[in-house]
Write a structure and sequence with these properties.
Length: 305
């Protein structure tokens, strides 16, 4: 069995939840499960490099290449194979490395970045088979709402902190000092929501961010940000994903036509197509101490309309 030498083609940025694909490789994993590589997929994978949006859920169904005697069935081959996980993986042609075990950066010469669909040990799919790939649409929509809400919340947070900078710093997509980029420690997209954790450390202070009174201000801060977010949601702004290509490793951006201007943020995730799909976007804050560093947690809820 050979490994693919080109990246998996992806259709989730365009919103696809179904596709036909060819099995390029099946790899037994150490835990007894199998990793299946397809030429193309609508499955959004988790990327260990920045694991903000988790994997899609769904299943594969056999359409040809195996069970050829079972024609005239329901078109899905009658056998559904659940996808247990979908993970960014990479191969140099000699082995397949999944997730955090990938030893090289994206773009390294001689390496193909692919999506590993993790299947159970008894999945019984072989190289060359054609499968229909089906993504759980409800789960995808909830993650898309959460991810768009997360980007909006980060822009609104930057706006609310805009006067807390004593030195010039990098600006965000709306030309406001980018607190999010300067302080983010982790971002987790949930169903119709997100959790962003910011570390208010010495390095952030050296960059010129002013901490004074911040923790006491948190209740008011939430209300200010929710006001900005309510206006954005009410605008029903269009959201789109721009792509430099169809491959997993091609650059993509989230673009939203907000009243303040068009905001573009590099992003590999999935999103709603308009803010009218969201009932609201609201944030709340909590602060904790971790070894002398204040850790600010922003919880965003972005329920579907
Ligand atoms: Zn994103």
């Amino acid at each position: 069995m050979t490994f693919p030498s080109t990246p998996t083609l992806v259709s989730y940025p365009a919103g696809a939840v179904q596709a036909e694909a060819r099995v390029l490789h099946v790899e037994p994993l150490a835990d007894g499960r199998q990793a299946l590589l397809l030429d193309a997929t609508p499955f959004h994978p988790v990327d260990a490099g920045w694991p903000d949006q988790g994997p899609d859920r769904g299943y594969l169904s056999l359409t040809s290449g195996q069970d050829n005697d079972k024609d005239n069935d329901d078109g899905g081959g009658g056998r559904l194979v659940p996808v247990l996980d979908a993970v960014v993986a990479a191969t140099d042609g000699s082995a397949l490395h999944l997730g955090a075990d990938i030893p090289v950066r994206k773009g390294t010469e001689g390496w193909a970045f692919v999506i590993a669909h993790v299947l159970s040990a008894d999945a019984d799919l072989t190289e060359g088979a054609t499968v229909r790939v089906t993504v759980d649409q409800g789960h995808r929509r909830a993650l898309s709402a959460g991810h768009t809400g997360c980007h909006l919340a980060s822009l609104a947070l930057n706006a609310a902190f805009a006067d807390r900078w004593s030195k010039p710093t990098r600006n965000d997509a709306l030309g406001v000092p980018d607190f999010d980029a300067a302080a983010i420690a982790s971002s987790t997209i949930t169903a119709c929501g997100s959790v962003d954790v910011f570390r208010l450390n010495k390095s952030l202070r050296r960059k010129g961010f002013l901490f004074d009174g911040l923790v006491d201000e948190l209740p008011n801060l939430g209300a200010r940000i929710n006001g900005i977010l309510a206006a954005w949601v009410a605008s029903g702004a269009a959201v789109r994903i721009t792509c430099e290509g169809d491959a997993l490793t091609d650059r993509r951006s989230w673009v939203c036509s907000l009243p303040e201007g068009e905001a573009a943020i590099p992003c590999g995730g999935t999103h709603v197509t308009t803010l009218a799909e969201l009932a609201a976007v609201e944030v709340s804050f909590s602060a904790t101490e971790d070894g002398g560093t204040t850790v600010l947690t922003m919880r965003t809820s972005a329920p579907l309309a």
